[in-house]
Amino acid sequence: MPGGTIIFSTEVFQAKGPIQKDGSYVLGSVEINDGIPKGVYNVHFASSMLTVPTTTFDEKTKKATTVVQTTKLVDDKYVHPKESGITCEIKGGMTFDFSVDPPSK
Predict the structure, then answer these.
(1) Fewest CB atoms within 10 Å of the CB: 25, 29, 43, 104?
(2) What is the pLDDT along the chain (105 residues), one digit of tens a residue?
(3) DSSP letters of 41-84?
(4) 98 CB contacts (<8 Å, ≥6 apart)?
(5) pTM summary value
């Protein structure tokens, strides 16, 4: 889900990080890349939409028209921390890979 944001949260704490084109992410809470304390977290995603502008040029009218197409990247349930169904326990310097369902039709 490149372009989105992954969020690890509890009732009192939240860390997040931008998802890179290769799917990797690094979490931060106060500052970018400052990590996350040990604990159990709900995982969810923000910015789960991909926006792609497309510009066409009409030779007759000599006018350009831009259309913005927005596409969901993940199912809506992954946007809400309690509904995503994803939890993880942080025990130290760890890496987590997640697989999520595409948007329901």
Answers:
(1) 104
(2) 567 889 999 998 999 988 888 888 888 888 777 878 889 999 998 865 667 788 888 888 888 888 887 777 778 888 888 889 999 998 877 778 887 777 776
(3) EEEEEE--EEEEEEEEEETTTTEEEEEEEEEE-S-GGGGSTTTS
(4) 6, 43, 86
(5) 0.70
For 14, 36, 86, the CA distances from 40, given in Å and listed in that order, are: 11, 11, 11
Tokens of 95: 């890496």
Q: Which residues contact 57 (CB under 8 A, 6 or more apart)?
A: 63, 64, 65
Per-residue exposure over 12-37, b if at least 16 CB sit within 10 Å of its own CB, e if not: eeebbbbbeeeeebebeeeeeeeebe
- Per the structure block, which two tokens stand in for 46? 């923000």
State phi, psi for 58 to the nearest 5 degrees.
-95, 115
